[in-house]
Each structure stands twice: as C-alpha cells, then as structure tokens.
Amino acid sequence: MKFDVIIGNPPYQLSDGLEGANFYRASAIYHLFIDKAIELNPRYVSMIVPSRWMTNTAEGISNEWTNNFINSGKIKSICDYEDSTKLFNQVLVRGGINYFLWDRNHNGKCEYEFHSENGDIKRKAMKLDSFNLGFVVRDLNAHSIIKKVNSKEDGYYKNQSTNFSDLVGPKHFFDKGKLLATNWREYKKEKCKTYNIKFYVSEHTNKVPYGWIKESDVPKNKKAINLHKIYISAGGGIPRYGEPGSVCSETYLVIGYNHCLSKEEILNIMRYMSTKFFRFLMGIKQKARSATRGVYQLIPLQDWSESWTDEKLYKKYNLTQDEIDYIESTTSSMDISNELNIAKDLN
User: Fold this and answer.
1) How many C-beta atoms surround the C-beta of residue 207 within 10 A?
2) What is the count of structural domains for the chain?
3) 232 exposed, middle or buried (CB, 10 Å; 0-12, 13-18, 19+)?
4) Domain annotation covers residue 202
5) Do residues 247 and 315 share a domain?
6) How far apart are CA 211 and CA 343, in angstroms?
7) CB 277 within 8 A of CB 40
8) Is the pTM of this model over 0.85?
9) Bridge-based pairing state of the strands 229-233 and 252-255
10) What CA–CA distance (Å, rounded) separates 220 from 14?
C-alpha cells in the first residue's frame, strides 16, 4: 500500500495514571507516530504535536531523536504556538503546540513561524538548529540576544563547564528511593541532638517549610551537607539559601554544591537568578513546568564576587534598547529580598 500524504493528531503521552502536576511527567509517545509515518515513505507528513520536543524538555523523547529530526533537512515548515489555547481554545498543552510539514523531497531551511504568548508573530526561513545545540531556539527574538552573549562568552553554551548548568545538581541530589522523597515523613519538627540536619521540604505538601533529620537519613552526597548552596524547586520559582548543615527533599534542585562557594558568592548567585536577564535565557528552554539542569544551558557564568543587576548585564552584553524592552516586557519581576534577609540570619 502506498501513501502520498499522512496527516494526524497522534496521542501525546502515556499518562500511567499520573494526575495533576505529575501528569506532565508522563512519557511522550507522539514521536513514535512520527517515526512510523516516515517509515511508510510518503511524500508528506503533517502532524499536530506538543512543542516540548523542540527544546529537549519532553519526557520520553531522547536528545538524539530531536537532533536527528531537526537536522534532517526534511522539515519544510513549522507553525509553533507558545500558548496552545491560541490554536485550540481552552486546551492547555504545557510548553505550547505546533504543526509541521515534513517533505521527503525537501532538503534545506525550514519556514518557521512563531506565535508568542502575547500574540506577536515572527517568521523566518532558517536552519532549525541555529546554534548547533541539537534543539530549536523557538523564540526568534531571542536569537540576537544569544548571539551577543556568545560574542562575549565564546561558545559558552556548548560545554556544561562554561555555562550555569555546571552549578546545577542532578535530580534526586540527596534523596534515593523513598528516603527524602517528597512524601517521606520521617523527620522531626524540632531540632535535637540526634536530629540536627535541617531538611527543606515542600511547604505546600508538608504544611511546614522544613524539618530535622539524622545525618544517617541522608543516603548520598553527604559532602554537600556542610556547604553553602541554593535550593530551588524543580519546577522553578524563588531560590532559597541552603545553609551549611542542611539538605533538601526531591522537591528541589541543588545549586552551587560543587564549587565550595562562600556565603556571599551564593547570595550573589541568588541575586543573579532573580534578574530578568537570567530568567529570560532560562525560559528559552523551560517551556513547561520542568526546570532541570538542561534549562540553564543558555545562561552564562559570572564573577560571583559581584552583585549582578539587569542594568549591569544589559551593559555587559551590549543589548540594544529593543532587546532590553523585549526582555523587560516578557519576563516578570522576582523579589528575593525576603530570602536574602532570611539568609543573613543563618550561619
């Protein structure tokens, strides 16, 4: 049987019974339908799928698959919506949605169209992997900003050791199995001689911000217990100072654990993380709730002896007023003054 055209809106993921926020951790399966369609050797394939695959943030889709697909030269066009409800009324797909045209006989640039959350539409004929990173920088307005940062930092985003992801620990940094998992409750509410390690937990889930545990409860990375560090929710949010003598549950990522940083350096990193510049670059990859190490790839490292502000960063990277205005208008403010005040009182 011969197919000239295959069109579809395939199933997006296997839910495996996951609900609520965990629903978006389900494994994607739509790429398997794309593969099967291409195997049938049609002239055209066109499908509507979530956009998270483009930034390597879709559970179950390998970076290798994304790299191969966007560098095949066969994707003739993509229409990409940052807000899925702009395409499907009242249908929320985290990270956006897109429809693409794969053409067996095409071998070249893609006609890419990006619909931003605020309704702006940008179009460009381009190589999808514009920065040779194995993923798509979807927001076309971000391209010039990344180029300017790279002109100062010289390939910083290609090696983990030269961008902010180097500071970010892997998921499950302190926890292992059930120990220190989100629903683990074997902590004490009061500090005592034995239970003397502060254990930061999800206040939403536990109704308290932290408890106290024994050092023997920490299954791994014990060397980081007595370091200055930062905790931030794996879903993003406000950074929290992690003082020496503390650990965290699987709710959080650990930042700065591997550089023996001073308290002041850690606080300067927190200030950097609160800037719109930082969060704009982070948001290029973080188009869903997940904020794992990979979403920090496009953020440059700085001199942590300095306290960084947006004004200093805009000047350092020679951003134009239009570029500054775009960052300012698309990125919300973050006030970490309360976290800094709390940190000052902690040893």
Assistant:
1) 8
2) 2
3) buried
4) yes
5) yes
6) 17
7) no
8) yes
9) antiparallel
10) 31
DSSP letters for 98-147: EEEEEETT--S-EEEEEE-TTS-EEEEEE-SSTTSSSS----TTHHHHHH
Q: Identity (one letter) of the amino acid at 19?
A: E
Q: Report d(CA 233, CA 45) in Å as an integer.
A: 39
Q: Which amino acid is at 259?
A: H
* Residue whose tokens read 């929290």: 240
Angstrom distance (rounded) from CA 51 to CA 135: 11
Whether 264 has a pLDDT exceeding 50, the answer reads yes
Q: Would you mind telling me the total number of residues written for the chain in this entry?
A: 347
Residues 205 and 67 in one domain: no
Amino acid identity of 307?
A: S
| pLDDT, greater one: 25 or 229 | 229
DSSP codes of every residue in 145-192: HHHHHHHHHSSGGGSGGGBGGGGBPPSSSS-BTTBT-TT----BSS--
Mean pLDDT of 12-35: 72
Mean pLDDT in residue range 52-66: 91
* Residue scoring higher pLDDT (267 or 346): 267
